[in-house]
């Protein structure tokens, strides 16, 4: 098989969450334990850092991987989902796993698929662990998929953990309250393993404190360690000035200009200080700051307030739930530009009406749908949006929608593409 045939085979043979939703989710660690045992427990060959959360865990994972790369370590990075290529999920020192390696791994271990019948996610996890072992990775940054407690990545025994923002998402799997969702994320907290919380939230603070106490795990909240004096967003970079528990004053530049990164960066910086104080990794402050500044070069994260064009300004962002969209639209309001155009697509198993209440009624909408079985049809999204006073046209293809918006807009207008990771993944403009 070639690479395309292998990926098609995996999609066909294995339950895939991003295509099928809840029915593809296999809770528990039974399958991943079997996979790891059959392949010699590759997860024991490297030291790991584990990251969970609703929003911000992808950005935080890339920041941390970049920081470790700047320190000269051999760094593995596992994240999901991918935007354009499956190989984006598994990186070594910022480079995607080679397509040929994916082919060889599947062909060599195809009997495991037949014997264990893992989910697509479980298979990608064991693939990442095996690749990291083969590459002699020293530190692996591992992002959870769904939740934490029953997530396949939770088989690892990490050296330190980070939990980012908690918000409404995947209620059908994680629970129908923010407290239940936080409890699932808290499942990554392990005996004696330090935990950092990026964002103190009233409903989750006691849950994390209680779990950490039960596990005798040192816990810190980022806002107790990192304080921002100011930040300036010049559209190309986010310039922040602050102080920390260890540093009187520092300046930092982020190549990702979404203002939600302010909390993500605070979380990562506090986590680095915790890791340093506990002598887990001998991190250097100047390399921590450089790691964040060079994170886009080092790890190639895409789709976070990504500016595809400047006039009219076109921004793509993978925000897709209440918290993510709220933060995104707050920044949009600060743009002081002309007409706002929103190209919107969503998956059907989200709380569509809750998210639609957040969008401005004075924007012009183009409703889309990703080429994904879970995508809500553009027509149904248009009907639901109309109930909230949001008016617009339908165009299934996101790239055609971008062309329509560009032709109809003026130079000072603003075009936002959001609502679904899968919609952003299909953008051709700026993703060559």
From TrEMBL:
Keywords: ATP-binding, Folate biosynthesis, Ligase, Magnesium, Metal-binding, Nucleotide-binding. Pathway: Cofactor biosynthesis; tetrahydrofolate biosynthesis; 7,8-dihydrofolate from 2-amino-4-hydroxy-6-hydroxymethyl-7,8-dihydropteridine diphosphate and 4-aminobenzoate: step 2/2; Cofactor biosynthesis; tetrahydrofolylpolyglutamate biosynthesis. It is an enzyme of class 6 (ligase). It catalyses: 10-formyltetrahydrofolyl-(gamma-L-Glu)(n) + L-glutamate + ATP = 10-formyltetrahydrofolyl-(gamma-L-Glu)(n+1) + ADP + phosphate + H(+); 7,8-dihydropteroate + L-glutamate + ATP = 7,8-dihydrofolate + ADP + phosphate + H(+); (6R)-5,10-methylenetetrahydrofolyl-(gamma-L-Glu)(n) + L-glutamate + ATP = (6R)-5,10-methylenetetrahydrofolyl-(gamma-L-Glu)(n+1) + ADP + phosphate + H(+); (6S)-5,6,7,8-tetrahydrofolyl-(gamma-L-Glu)(n) + L-glutamate + ATP = (6S)-5,6,7,8-tetrahydrofolyl-(gamma-L-Glu)(n+1) + ADP + phosphate + H(+). Residues 303-420 form the Mur ligase C-terminal domain. Pfam families: Mur_ligase_C, Mur_ligase_M. NCBIfam families: folC. Functions in two distinct reactions of the de novo folate biosynthetic pathway. Catalyzes the addition of a glutamate residue to dihydropteroate (7,8-dihydropteroate or H2Pte) to form dihydrofolate (7,8-dihydrofolate monoglutamate or H2Pte-Glu). Also catalyzes successive additions of L-glutamate to tetrahydrofolate or 10-formyltetrahydrofolate or 5,10-methylenetetrahydrofolate, leading to folylpolyglutamate derivatives. This is Dihydrofolate synthase/folylpolyglutamate synthase.
């Amino acid at each position: 098989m070639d690479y395309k045939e292998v990926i098609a085979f995996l999609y066909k043979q294995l339950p895939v969450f991003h295509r099928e939703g809840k029915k593809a989710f296999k809770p528990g660690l039974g399958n991943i334990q079997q996979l790891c045992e059959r392949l010699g427990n590759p997860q024991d060959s490297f030291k790991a850092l584990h990251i969970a959360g609703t929003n911000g865990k992808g950005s935080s994972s890339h920041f941390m991987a970049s920081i470790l790369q700047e320190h000269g370590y051999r760094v593995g990075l596992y994240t999901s989902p991918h935007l354009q290529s499956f190989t984006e999920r598994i990186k070594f020192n910022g480079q995607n796993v080679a397509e040929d390696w994916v082919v060889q791994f599947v062909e060599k271990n195809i009997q495991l698929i037949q014997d264990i019948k893992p989910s697509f996610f479980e298979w990608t996890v064991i693939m990442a662990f095996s690749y990291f072992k083969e590459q002699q990775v020293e530190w692996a940054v591992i992002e959870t998929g769904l939740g934490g407690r029953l997530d396949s990545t939770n088989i690892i025994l990490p050296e330190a953990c980070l939990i980012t923002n908690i918000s409404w998402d995947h209620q059908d799997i994680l629970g129908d309250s923010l407290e239940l969702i936080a409890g699932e994320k808290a499942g990554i907290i392990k005996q004696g393993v330090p935990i950092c919380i990026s964002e103190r939230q009233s409903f989750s603070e006691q849950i994390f404190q209680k779990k950490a106490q039960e596990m005798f795990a040192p816990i810190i909240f980022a806002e107790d360690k990192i304080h921002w004096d100011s930040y300036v967003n010049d559209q190309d970079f986010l310039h922040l000035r602050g102080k920390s528990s260890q540093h009187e004053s520092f300046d930092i530049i982020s190549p990702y200009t979404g203002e939600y990164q302010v909390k993500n960066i605070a979380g990562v910086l506090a986590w680095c200080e915790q890791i340093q104080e506990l002598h887990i990794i001998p991190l250097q402050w100047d390399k921590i700051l450089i790691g964040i500044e060079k994170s886009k070069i080092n790890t190639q994260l895409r789709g976070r307030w990504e500016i595809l064009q400047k006039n009219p300004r076109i921004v793509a962002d993978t925000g897709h739930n209440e918290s993510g969209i709220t933060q995104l639209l707050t920044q949009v309001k600060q743009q002081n530009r002309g007409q706002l155009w929103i190209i919107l697509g969503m998956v059907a198993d989200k709380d569509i009406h809750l998210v639609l209440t957040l969008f401005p009624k004075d924007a012009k909408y183009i409703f889309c749908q990703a080429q994904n079985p879970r995508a809500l049809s553009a027509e149904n999204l248009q009907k639901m949006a109309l109930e909230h006073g949001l008016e617009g046209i339908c165009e299934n293809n996101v790239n055609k929608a971008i062309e329509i918006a560009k032709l109809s807009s003026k130079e000072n207008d603003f075009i936002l593409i959001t609502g679904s990771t899968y919609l952003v993944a299909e953008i051709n403009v700026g993703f060559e």
